[in-house]
Amino acid sequence: MSGRIIVGVTGAPVSRRAVDWAVARAARTHQSVELIAVVGGAVGAIGEAEVLGAAQTAAQQLLDDEAARVGGDVGTRVASGNPVSVLVEASADAAMLVIGSDYRGAGTGPARGVHGMRIAAGSKCPVVVVPDRDLGEGAGVVVGVDGSEVSEHAIEFAAAEADRLDEPLIAVSVWTPLHTPRTAMEVYPDLYLANMQSAAEETLALSLAGISSRYPDLKVVRRAERGHPSQVLSEIARDARLVVVGTHGRGAVARFLLGSISQELLSHLPTATAVVR
User: Fold this and answer.
1) Structural domains present in the chain
2) Rounded to whole angstroms, how far apart are CA atoms 204 and 201?
3) How confident is the model at residue 260 (pLDDT cuts 50, 70, 90)?
């Protein structure tokens, strides 16, 4: 696979995890890695040039240290401006963008902030968000399936990753019963539930058609589950190596917005999470 993997690097400890994830992935796919640090906040104030210069020097030293730590084909670049805009612009010429998240798991602090979500939503290439915790060994690549066009892109990305990793592809379609007032429907009819389950299974079958011919050695696990999509995906992905979802952002404003499922997953990362447009 051609193209670069770009990594957004900051002084936060999780940046090392993001760099390590990207370098390991690049080694498998024979890609190059570029580390980018962004110095933001300049407003043109008098005396700011000296401060900006010092910040850029420190950022370059940070990148040089990381490049030396991991070795290999790793480039570096210091940019100035808004971190979201800089990384989104850089993604136009990249095969993948990797960023870290300070989210460490349930009960450990706030969910991921808005900047990371805007980067994931606005990026021109797939974005992988790495949480700030040891992911362990993990097994399988989980992908959310809903029958949409962007879901097809997510499936193709997830299948390729699973095939490269020699891991099973775990395709998940989640169905949610119609919400009604508590007194209106205490018990759903069995026929309704069975039809909802069948519809989810049909969505999986149609969406995965052709995967086996393109990846003959890939093991595919199909799971049609009842519940809330982000909760079900999070639970299944907790022990996976990667979870892949699509974003439905469109247009000048919408491209900086995520769909509810991808946003909820990024808010409470179950594992390394890829967002595919």
Assistant:
1) 1-100 (3.40.50.620), 135-277 (3.40.50.12370)
2) 5
3) confident
